[in-house]
Amino acid sequence: MKYEAALYGEVKKPGLGPLHTEFDGKGNAYTSMFVSSEVVKWNIKDLKVLDRAPTYYSVGHICIPGGNTRKPSPKYLIAYNKITKDRYLPTGPELAQSAQLYDISGDKMQMIFDFPTIGEPHYAQAAPADLIRNNGQLKIYKLKK
Q1: Distance from first CA to last CA of the chain, Å, rounded?
Q2: Is 132 helix (H, G, I), strand (E, B) or coil?
Q3: Among 88, 100, 115, 117, which residue's Cβ finds the most Cβ atoms within 10 Å?
Q4: For 79, phi and psi rounded to 5 degrees?
């Protein structure tokens, strides 16, 4: 199959270095832009950019709870950033990376929390707690040091 035969269209000037996309179930997609260090919200029907939010620094994976399912929970987006080892004080053998939590419930994305994470941030999935708790899937494991 040729690329053009499967192509619906292309977003005009979305940003530099697009990597990963999640969906909100309301007709919008959110794509991480590694080079321009931002998350871009765009409409999947008309392919127009609706909003941009900066990240610190080069964002890789992003997560909207259920964002790769038919019924996402489109209130929050988490940006998992790379190349951020100098943002936080070195307090242990492993340097913290950075992540941001955005409120995406309105027209514009709004960063509400900026926090350190341990380990190279990579793909993660989230789900509403009730989805797990109410279906008997709750298991608690003790962390061993």
Answers
A1: 52
A2: helix
A3: 100
A4: -105, 125
